[in-house]
Design a protein that fits this description.
heterodimer; A: about 450 residues; alpha/beta; TIM Barrel; 8-stranded mixed beta sheet; 11 helices; about 20% strand; disordered N terminus; B: about 425 residues; Urease, subunit C, domain 1; 2 domains; 10 helices; 16 strands; about 25% strand; globular
Chain lengths: ~450, ~425
């Protein structure tokens, strides 16, 4: 990729030079880049006014309400409180049950590494260049992955699909509504920002070191990021100049289009969010400096096994940390795990701790994953409540993805993404009984009419 | 409350005995416990258990004399859990080749990975947090058929942790990355056939020294050592039932995602099944019936179920108890789930532990509450009657980074 980079810079520079000579010619048609060429076609399933009554409600805003009701109208949460008197088409007596916002997983590879995990389905890692910012993982998503259905049965209502971590820049991630659909666009979360997957540490240097190209070391990783951002800054400058000149009535030459830099430019402009696979304290600290060097936000650190070592730095930078409760030891950079990682990150003021799965199995029990953290932390001096811990898999996750104005909490006006649990979701025996997305029931444990099945599973013996 | 005669050796509490398994066990009793025996006795309330010289010597005796008495105050006491099919002590960091000793390209039937068992691995104290006191460690093999021999180890951390070698011969069948599954099954059948013929010939001439493979295969053919076979597809399992019938060998199925399809045949053939209770995705065309309900379904069909942890089973083995809780949530009985990680494992691999019964190894765990729950933790743990700690390297790291200090963290130890 680095070899290809020089000529494209040349084109940009040339474009800028030529533009200077054409100031007075009549204007050609303005070239604008379509930022949404694969738009969402998601439509909420049919819903009715639904009143859930008498539940223990964890709102996702840090509150816990006993014997409370939740009213869903026109796909939105209309009211949460005691003894609501609304007229509802459907009333669900949730006595003894718990209600939470729909769970959100910020790190999934469903659809891109689907089940069955046969060779033909390995679509998550474009391992052909250390910078593949030009790929969009939505173009790999197989909506028939049975894993989407299993995740919904675990209360997952939204999730971000990310490309893998082989590359310094792995490509764009996409946020989906976890509804059954037979196209990716049918699942795409309307107006959710795009993510850009970056990766620190062992993976890129291993994959490309073997091929004898940069990076083969951690310093090679950093050099690779910096070269790319230098190119991105130039690219942005060229397009900004084109826009400015055109607006001034000039007829500038159209800069060279490069979809790799479209994505990086999106980051520089704050439209695309960084989601950075990065395990180690010293690397996360450098990634924050890198973001400052080039003027973008470092975004969310994913996996962050050593996030607890720099909890203050993460909060200060406004970076979320999306973490496992207990994965460790599969490689050297995952050796320093502590079971209280999420809780330590969370304890700092202005923090944004998230529990993520990165797994087609634990995405089905993100509630239990959060529960493990809560209980281990409380065993060791913390005092974390259920109403607080639920934020790690709802509101904070929504914040990481930039959809916190739409979902992630049970507040009036938010999308009615709701789970009814048979008991506290932090019990090993907890089961999601009913799941709603935009007010529509998409799963019911006791009604097969609301249990979606993948095309792949149909008719199998 | 029963009459007790206690001889306390006052607070020679376990602190000094934590690490070394070579320290001889003091005799002790846990009283006022809720004993989940994992035996025919089921659950005993307000019960006592006595340990002496590494063994359980009494359950609910009328009278006992011990060095130390622990009042459980009603807490749950279980046998230590026995994990299986992982590489505990054979790997420190998955991606660090020099710390991986469970697999060997040149290995064959007689490969004994337990020679590399490292009782001082950081994974072992961490695994104890999950109530695990013993483990069946297994070698693995890339594209081969015979991975080698499984062994039973305890998690005491002592250099004498390997309790039993040749606990099973590990075989991989089913789908292949290239070639046909028929070839691998045929290879197994031919191998059994070859050694069966050899055994009958050698019975006549006693001067020939048998090879290591001969000895192992003779044990397998006598039914003294099970074949632990990784396989998933139901049709493959049906073929293996025929193999069992033809050669009279003991077979244990591992993985077995589609075992539910032929559950009654498996139950009838008396073949135990090791599964990960959380394995519920159709990872391949061999496992289209993977489901959270499978552990309960197999149990109800009369299959002896053993629970193992999926994924990185070595580093994550402490989660076994949560898998058991989920299995219960999806239809397995509470006692059945406990047996699936205690007495069933002991029965299948010939381990003298896994239940709170007189004569069994004193592997005993006292829990804060329901051991299957996320909220519970180990309060006390004994392996061979010696108290062991569950403190791990992870706790040291947490302490370092949550303790206030004016000095760099490196000075906090």
């Amino acid at each position: 990729m680095m070899q290809k980079f020089a000529p494209s810079l040349l084109v940009v520079a040339l474009g800028v030079a030529i533009a200077g000579c054409q100031d007075n010619s009549p204007q050609d048609e303005k070239v604008t880049i379509n930022k949404n060429p694969y738009p969402s076609t998601y439509k909420a399933l049919k819903s009715t006014t639904t009143l859930i009554t008498n539940a223990t409600v964890l709102t996702g805003t840090g509150e816990r309400l006993e014997e409370a009701d939740v009213l869903l109208v026109d796909g939105k949460v209309q009211q949460v409180g005691k003894d609501l008197t609304a007229q509802a088409d459907l009333t669900i007596d949730a006595q003894g049950k718990w209600v939470t916002p729909g769970l959100i997983d910020v790190h999934s590879h469903l659809g891109a590494y689907p089940s069955p995990s046969v060779e033909s389905h390995q679509d998550g890692n474009e391992m052909t260049s250390p910078n593949t910012a030009e790929v969009w993982v939505e173009h790999s998503v197989w909506p028939q992955d049975p894993g989407f259905n299993r995740a919904r049965e675990g209360g997952i209502t939204a999730l971000q699909i990310l490309p893998g971590s082989a590359n310094l820049f792995g490509g764009r991630g996409v946020t989906l509504k976890n509804v059954p659909a037979h196209t990716m666009q049918g699942m795409k979360f309307p107006d959710a920002p795009y993510g850009l997957k970056m990766a620190c540490g062992e993976n890129p240097k291993r994959v490309y070191g073997r091929k004898g190209v940069l990076p083969s070391t951690r310093m090679g990783n950093m050099a690779g990021y910096r070269e790319a951002w230098i190119g991105a800054v130039e690219y942005k400058r060229a397009w900004d100049k084109y826009d400015t000149d055109y607006a001034a009535g000039k007829n500038p030459e159209v800069p060279h289009r490069d979809i790799k830099y479209d994505t990086l430019r999106g980051v520089l402009e704050g439209e695309v969010r960084i989601h950075n696979h990065c395990y180690k304290a010293e690397e996360m600290a450098m990634m924050i400096d890198l973001s400052k060097e080039f003027g973008y936000h470092a975004g969310t650190f994913h996996h962050g096994i050593e996030a607890y070592k720099i909890a203050d730095l993460l909060a200060e930078n406004g970076s979320c940390a999306a973490l496992w409760p207990d994965w460790w030891g599969f490689k050297m950079e995952a050796y320093d795990m502590v079971q209280e990682n999420v809780a330590i990150v969370d304890a700092v003021k202005n923090s944004c701790a998230v529990v993520h799965s990165d797994s087609d199995l634990t995405i089905q029990r993100l509630n239990q994953e959060a529960g493990k953290v809560m209980y281990r932390a409380n065993d060791n001096g913390f005092n974390i409540s259920e109403q607080h811990a639920i934020k790690w898999i709802t509101a904070n996750a929504a914040k990481s993805l930039g959809i916190e104005d739409k979902t992630g909490s049970l507040e009036a006006g938010k999308q009615a993404d709701v789970v009814i649990w048979n008991q506290s979701p932090f019990s090993v025996y907890a089961k999601a009984e009913q799941v709603f997305v935009d007010g529509a029931k998409v799963y019911d444990r006791n009604d097969s009419a609301f249990q979606a099945q993948s095309d792949f599973m149909l008719g199998q013996q | 409350m029963k009459k007790l005669s206690r001889s306390f050796s006052l607070s020679l509490v376990a602190a000094g005995l934590l690490v070394s398994g070579t320290v001889s066990a003091e005799s002790l009793a846990i009283i006022n416990a809720t004993l989940h025996t994992s035996s025919d006795q089921g659950v005993l309330e307000g019960a006592s258990i006595v340990m002496n010289d590494g063994k359980i010597t009494a359950i609910n005796p009328n009278d006992f004399k011990v060095d130390k008495v622990i009042d459980a105050q009603g807490q749950i006491v279980t046998p230590g859990f026995i994990a299986s099919v992982n590489q505990l002590g054979l790997v420190e960091v998955g991606a660090v080749a020099g710390s991986r000793d469970a697999g060997e390209d040149k290995a064959g039937i007689d490969f004994d990975a337990s020679l590399a068992f490292n009782p001082r691995s950081s994974l072992i104290p961490y695994a104890r947090k999950g109530g695990i006191t013993r483990d069946l460690i297994t070698p693995y093999v890339g594209d081969g058929i015979f991975a080698g021999l499984a062994s039973v180890v305890d998690l005491s951390g002592s250099f004498e942790s390997v309790n039993k070698k040749q606990a099973a011969l590990v075989v991989h069948l089913g789908e292949r990355s290239k070639g046909s599954r028929a070839f691998t099954l045929q290879t197994l059948i031919n191998k059994l056939d070859e050694h069966q013929t050899k055994a009958s010939k050698e019975a006549k001439k006693d001067d020939a020294k048998p090879s290591a493979e001969d000895t192992i295969m003779a044990k397998v053919l006598k039914g003294d050592m099970p074949l632990l076979i990784s396989v998933s597809r139901s049709a493959d399992i049906v073929e293996l039932i025929k193999v069992k019938q033809q050669f009279g060998v003991n077979i244990v199925l591992n993985g077995a995602q589609d075992a539910v399809v032929v559950k009654d045949r498996i139950a009838k053939a008396g073949i135990p099944v090791i599964i990960s209770a959380m394995d519920n995705l159709p990872g391949s065309f061999d496992s289209l019936h993977a489901s959270l309900n499978n552990a309960g379904i197999l149990e109800k069909a009369g299959v002896k179920v053993l629970l193992t942890v999926g994924g990185d089973a070595s580093h994550n083995v402490y989660q076994l108890r949560y898998d058991a809780g989920n299995a219960v949530s999806y239809g397995m009985s509470q006692q059945g789930a406990l047996k699936a990680m205690t007495s069933n494992v002991a029965d299948v691999f010939g381990i003298n532990a896994g239940s709170l019964e007189v004569g069994k190894a004193a592997d005993v765990v006292m829990w804060s509450n329901d051991p299957f729950e996320l909220s519970s933790h180990v309060n006390k743990m004994f392996i061979n009657g010696v108290e062991v700690s569950t403190e791990s390297r992870q706790d040291k790291l947490r302490e370092r980074y949550t303790t206030e200090s004016n000095m760099p963290r490196a000075y906090t130890k």
